[in-house]
Amino acid sequence: MRYLLLLIACVTLIPGCGRQDENVVVLEEQPPTGEFTLTETSIKIHQADFVHALYLDDLEYKRIDFKKFNVDNQGDIQKQYDAIILENKYVKLTLLPKLGKPYSFIYKVTGNEEFFIPKVAHMHISPNKLGWWFMLGGVEYTMPDEEHGDTWATDWKWEITENSAKRKSVRLRVKELRFGLEEAIEISITPDKAYYVADLRITNPTDSVVHFQHWINPMWTPGGRGELTPNTEFIIPTKEVYATERSFNAWMLDYHPEGKRLQPYDENPMRYLKNWKGSGDLLAWKLDHGFYSAFSHEQNEGIVRVFPLEYTPGCNIWSWGAAPEAKVRFLFSGDSANAGYVEMWGGITQGFDKDFALLPGESIAWREFMYPYHGTRGLHHATEDLAITFFKEGNTDYSVSICPSGDVSDCTLMVIDRASRDLVYAIQLRSAYPKKDQSAFSFKNPSRGDIEMILLKEGKEIARLEPKAL
Predict the structure, then answer these.
(1) DSSP secondary structure string for all residues of 301-348
(2) How far apart (Å, rounded) are the C-alpha atoms in residues 115 and 370?
(3) Is the pLDDT of residue 38 over 90?
(4) DSSP 3-state percent helix, strand, coil across the chain (nearest 5)
């Protein structure tokens, strides 16, 4: 193809690093070195004093005897939990393995914590089948239905599956006690990536077909403040969202001229926390790509989950709202001044009213990634390797910002004229990495014709992006 031949000709003329000519940039950076460790330890967590009110039900799930526990005065004790810390030069990930939970995720490039960690972890009355939920923050992997499921309320088994110079890995396993499903989640990091990898497998070892749901619930506060900023953007690659049929979602209908639940999302005010008049559930009707993200524009930092769309097509946003009451703030965080977090749920079904079916002996398995990124002024597309924005800033002026998900190579971002297929601009990443001052690139398109950007990995097309107005 004409534009590919032109790109090859340009980037092979002058080897090395930096600008090669006026419309081709080659990055050949030297990534830093750093530690790579797996540490078994324990941590103390401030939490409600409800241990004396716990009991096991007939299935052996933990429940609360509310006659022995005052929901309005939960106390504050410190409890010690077993922990595993996985750390490399870019991130520090803390797991609570007996709870099946990634608990803390520190992005060492900026020094910021990306997960919500409450000052005091409280117990909540919940509409789930157990009647309660323990709000520890971090990330949950939940079965077998909506509203946090049941598996958080039983003990998980765990084992270190690899502790080599190439990979640190912990396998978390749980048996779902209502139907007998089994889940294994292998959490791993490598020396040179800012993401953690989750390899998930759900198996039906029973003699019956099981209908169930599985949701991933990351509780995010990107940017390091421990709470959401007003201009936190909820970035979902979808054309439409649906305000689910719950009474507390009524305010969402104000954002449609006809008061409809199904609404366009591109220009929807609910993309930003500051326009959430209350708490609510906002369901993505259909995802176009396998990623979603929360991004703090005040902090110029976000976090993204990248996943195979064919296995996890569901996405739902829940937050406290932009200005929650002090009582809500305290119940969810132990701090009446905290502005809250966002739950960006990902499911193996598109909505909470749909079930997935596993036949006897059948399994479903997939791999996904989660990583922080910064310096991009938002997010237009994310892959396992890159977080990207592509802006039109004037009649002929454009910009591209990228944040690698670690040490990356052999990626090319190629901007072409859609009519002539001529090369307008190209960025070739021979070697790049996430650093405090991220790379941003500006260029002009004198022809003023329509352009698009093609992302290539090892010569294979991964995605095509159109520029967005700044």
Answers:
(1) EEEEEE--TTT--EEEEEE--SS--HHHHHHHHS-TT----EEEEEES
(2) 11
(3) yes
(4) 10, 45, 45
Predicted confidence at residue 21, as pLDDT, reads 58
**Which residue type is seen at 376?**
T
Are 294 and 342 in contact by the 8 Å Cβ rule? The answer is yes
Q: Which whole number is the average pLDDT over 165-170?
A: 98
Q: What is d(CA 437, CA 300) in angstroms, rounded to the nearest whole number?
A: 11
The structural architecture, per CATH, of the domain 37-372 is: Distorted Sandwich (2.70)
Task: Compute the residue count for the chain.
Answer: 470
Is residue 372 within 8 Å of residue 258, measured between CB atoms?
no
Using the predicted structure, report yes or no on whether residue 5 has a pLDDT greater than 80. Answer: no
Beta-carbon neighbour count of residue 176 at 10 Å? 23
One-letter amino acid of 262: L
pLDDT value at 432 more than 80: yes
pLDDT of 11 > 70? The answer is no
| CB distance 249 to 280 below 8 Å | yes
Domain ranges for the chain: 2-30+403-469, 37-372
Q: What angle do CA 141, 43, 87 make, to 5 degrees?
A: 70
3-state class of 35 per DSSP? coil
Strand order in the sheet with 112-113: 37-47, 77-87, 91-96, 101-107, 112-113
Looking at residue 277, the DSSP 8-state letter turns out to be -
For residue 317, pLDDT over 70 is answered with yes
What are the pLDDT digits (tens) for 64-111? 999 999 999 999 999 999 999 999 999 999 999 999 999 999 999 999
CB 226 within 8 A of CB 113: yes
Q: How far apart are CA 64 and CA 334, in angstroms?
A: 20
b (16+ CB within 10 A) / e for 148-161: bbbbbbbebebeee
Q: Are strands 24-28 and 423-431 parallel, antiparallel or unpaired?
A: parallel
Share the mean pLDDT of the chain.
Answer: 94
Q: What single string gives the DSSP state of each residue in 151-181?
A: GGGSPPEEEEEEESSS-EEEEEEEE-TTT--
Q: Distance (Å, rounded) from C-alpha 134 to C-alpha 126?
A: 10
162: left (phi over 0), alpha (psi -120 to 50) or beta: beta
Residue 173: how many other CB atoms lie within 10 Å: 16
